[in-house]
Structures are given as C-alpha cells and as structure tokens.
C-alpha cells in the first residue's frame, strides 16, 4: 500500500533520525530508484520482495515523507526521493571506501591520503614525485582525483580531501598555499601551420586560427577566454577535449592549435612530431600551488606527503 505522509503531533512523534537508517536500507532504496521496480530491486539485493516492501515502507513512514510514486509504469522518485538518492549514493560510496581502507589497515597499510589535483599537475609533475614518495613510504596509499582548480579548492575546503595541487591564479580562499611548480604555457601546432616558426607569439596573434580547448572548467581555458576578451576578439573554439593527450592528437590531425603546459609537449607532442611556439603573455608564466586547510591538523600520512612535495629550501 503506498505510503501517504501525514501530519503528526510533534510532541508525540518525531520523524526517524537519519543516523538510524541502515546501509542495507539505503542500498535497497538506491536499487529501487535505479530499477524502477521493487521486485527487480529485491532480486538485485537478494532479499524477499515482501521484506523489501516492508523495509521501504518503514523508511518512508519513519522519515514521514513519500519517496516514490507508484503507478503502472513502476516506481518513480518524488522530489524528496531524488534528494535522498544523491545523499544515499555518497553515503554508500563513503562506507565502501571506509571498508576498503580498514581492510588495507588489517593487511599492514599504515595510512591513506586523499588528494585532489588539476590536470596539469597529474600529467606533468605528480607521477615522478609520487614514485619517489612511495620509495620511502611503501606502506601508504594515495587516492588521487583529477579536478579543475575550483573543484580542488572546494574539495579541500569541504573536507573531501586533505591536500591538493591547483593553479595559483585561482581563488584559493583561506587555504594554506605554497608554490609546488613554476612552468609556462606554450602554443602547440603542426609544423606546417602558418604560425610555426614565427614566434614567440602574443596570444592575440593566434586568435584568427581555430583552437582546441580543454574542458570549460579548466584554468587554461579560462585564461584563454580572458585573453581573447581583453584583445577584443572571439576565441575560435573548434572543439573541447578532456585532456592534454587529446589536444595533441587533435592538433596532429590538423583540427587546430592548442595551449598546453610546456612539459606536455615534451611528454606527448614531440613524439607526435608537433611544434610549439612560446607565448609572450604574462599569464603564460604560471605557478601551481600545493594547498591544504591550515585550520585543522593534517593526518600524519598527509603531512609526510606535504613535506615531500613542498619546495625544498
């Protein structure tokens, strides 16, 4: 029978506290939301349909809100159900991660570090740094996730990770930040492109040509847009791509030119027989920052990684 929320006397009864919802119930709720059917969800979770129905009804009754509408097409989420689904997935993911970490601790791992970094840092610098770090800390584990600079900052501020690496020209808020690397951006092109051999170039000189751009949230794309706006000319974006290897490949195919960090050319572009020209704009000289929250202590493992990554005196 469908659950119908009703008014209660607050002095007599209060809705279920969130901390009383079991992970089993959350998994069942997510399964019903994804399958659109209680029967299929019960089969997926290896639970009797009657037990699944009772558990779901208890959840709705306890929360005093309808999570699904039931009709001939199956079960569809209500607005409240959609809200719970987002949180339930995050809670189940966190529980799974915790279980995996505890298992590794039992196997002798001494610490986990959650780290966020932008694409430039992950491609150009962190692999070698982390290789060296693991030589002296083989019993640690690092969960590294790629995010644009804004996502790195938000993730650290909100506690999703302890440390991050991002572009220094982003809004870093109240995070503690030290210089991780300095590098420069260059313009990548085919050797037969009209601009090849005519550099160094002002970015404005490249605007008449089709350009390959990183995803819209990247700091490099933001820099390029601002430079085009300052020059009073449109940025001729031919295509957005997700990574530097895709920029190199699309440039190689003759689809346009693209801005990349200089180390990317050394890693990918040279082997593809591509060409680069230096950019004279001030924003082409940049800093990558190592960031963390200074208002709370880092875990021992994260502190060890910060000490490894921060500039040496």
Give me some keywords for this one:
12 helices; alpha/beta; globular; 11 strands; single chain; nine-stranded mixed sheet; 313 residues; two-stranded antiparallel sheet
Could you give the topology of this structure?
Layout: H1 23-35, H2 38-44, H3 49-63, E1 68-71, E2 74-77, H4 79-106, E3 111-117, H5 119-124, H6 126-136, E4 140-146, H7 149-157, E5 163-167, E6 176-189, H8 203-206, E7 211-214, H9 219-231, E8 237-241, H10 244-252, E9 257-261, H11 262-269, E10 275-278, E11 285-292, H12 300-309
Helix pairs in contact: 1-2, 1-4, 2-3
Task: Describe the structure in brief.
The chain has 313 residues and is an alpha/beta fold. It has helices at residues 23-35, 38-44, 49-63, 79-106, 119-124, 126-136, 149-157, 203-206, 219-231, 244-252, 262-269, 300-309; strands spanning 68-71, 74-77, 111-117, 140-146, 163-167, 176-189, 211-214, 237-241, 257-261, 275-278, 285-292.
Q: Which class do the helix and strand fractions yield?
A: alpha/beta
Strand content: 15-25%
Q: Which range best describes the helical content: under 10%, 10-25%, 25-40%, 40-55%, 55-70% or over 70%? A: 40-55%
Name the helix and strand elements from N-terminus to C-terminus, one letter apiece.
Answer: HHHEEHEHHEHEEHEHEHEHEEH
Report on the biggest sheet: 9 strands, mixed
* Rg over C-alpha atoms, rounded to the nearest angstrom: 26 Å
Low-confidence stretches: 6-13
Mean pLDDT figure: 87
């Amino acid at each position: 029978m469908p659950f119908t929320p009703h008014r209660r006397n607050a002095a007599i009864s209060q809705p279920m506290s969130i901390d009383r919802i079991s992970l089993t119930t959350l998994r069942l709720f997510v399964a019903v939301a994804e399958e659109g059917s209680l029967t299929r969800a019960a089969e997926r979770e290896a639970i009797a349909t009657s037990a699944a129905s009772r558990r779901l009804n208890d959840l709705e009754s306890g929360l005093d809100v309808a999570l699904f509408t039931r009709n001939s097409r199956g079960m569809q989420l209500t607005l409240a159900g959609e809200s719970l689904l987002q949180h339930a997935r995050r809670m189940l993911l966190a529980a799974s991660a915790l279980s995996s970490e505890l298992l590794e601790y039992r196997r002798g791992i001494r610490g986990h570090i959650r780290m966020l970094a932008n694409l430039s840092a992950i491609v150009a610098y962190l692999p070698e740094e982390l290789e060296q770090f693991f030589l002296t800390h083989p019993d640690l584990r690092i969960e590294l996730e790629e995010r644009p600079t804004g996502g790195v900052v938000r993730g650290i501020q909100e506690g999703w990770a302890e440390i991050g690496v991002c572009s220094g020209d982003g809004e870093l808020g109240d995070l503690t930040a030290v210089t991780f690397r300095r590098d420069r951006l260059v313009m990548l092109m085919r050797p037969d492109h009209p601009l090849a051999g005519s550099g160094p170039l002002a970015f404005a000189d490249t605007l008449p040509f089709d350009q390959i751009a990183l995803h819209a949230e990247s700091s490099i794309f933001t820099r390029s847009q601002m430079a085009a706006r300052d020059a009073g000319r449109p940025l001729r974006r031919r295509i957005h791509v997700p990574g530097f290897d895709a920029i190199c490949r699309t440039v190689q195919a003759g689809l346009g030119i693209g801005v990349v960090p200089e180390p990317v050319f050394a890693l990918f572009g040279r082997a593809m027989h591509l060409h680069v020209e230096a950019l004279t704009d001030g924003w082409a000289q940049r800093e990558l920052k190592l960031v963390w929250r200074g208002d709370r202590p880092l875990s021992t493992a994260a502190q060890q990684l910060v000490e490894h990554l921060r500039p040496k005196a």
